[in-house]
What we know:
The chain is mainly alpha-helical. Helices cover about 45% and strands about 10% of the residues. The protein has six helices and three strands; from the N terminus they run ααβαββααα. α1 (about 20-30) packs across α5 (about 110-125). The model is unreliable at about 1-5 (pLDDT under 50).
Amino acid sequence: MPNTEMPSGVRWGTPPTAEDLAELAETAFAAIPEPLREAVRGAAILVEEIPDDETLAEMGLEHPWELTGLYRGVPLTDKSALDAPALPDTILLYREPILVEWVESGEDLFRLVRNVLIHEIAHHFGYSEEGIARLEGEG
């Protein structure tokens, strides 16, 4: 049975809402070391139900539950002071895929949201999926 407690000790009586996940993401973001938080300052963290069809096609995925999060923007490694202003960087967390993984894995929901958030922040820093997997394997 999955751990259904938030850090504050609140138990889920119904499936967590997008607002619940946004609250968990805010708590996780606040716990990230200050230098990392500063580096992603200005990036929006949004919770959506599922990735849209265009995003799935772009990522080469067939089912929306295959994608728990997505970084949209220009990685820091590719940014230049000479670049024209662009849309703000966005970190998307997808509620339904996160909840499916939570139920299937039994992992603590806060930890899962934090891991997805950190994974997407790593993309902000220009890490590839392979680089992130290496980092996760070291920890």
